[in-house]
Hints:
Helix content: 25-40%
Mean pLDDT: 97
InterPro entries: Cu-bd (IPR000428), Heavy-metal-associated_CS (IPR017969), HMA_dom (IPR006121), HMA_dom_sf (IPR036163)
Order of helices and strands: EHEEHE
Pfam family, one: HMA
Organism: Geotoga petraea
Protein name: Copper chaperone
Number of strands: 4
Distance between the termini: 14 Å
CATH architecture: 2-Layer Sandwich
Structural class: alpha+beta
Keywords: Metal-binding
Number of helices: 2
CATH class: Alpha Beta
Strand content: 25-35%
Low-confidence stretches: none
Radius of gyration: 10 Å
Amino acid sequence: MKYTFDVPDMSCEHCKSTIEKALSSKKSITGFEVDLEGKKVHVETEEPAEMVQKLLDDAGYPAQIYM
């Protein structure tokens, strides 16, 4: 599945790097793109969206699934 999340608190390269590190830590995430300007994170995984959302929240960046 492909999911897109709004991450409104993401504002700099450090934010982007922190999110990339968190996403890279999960082997079940097969691909991702962090869009700093758009404040969105695109994730490809077989895991439920809630798992990715919790991962982003735990990294310090509350996220909402983008519909």
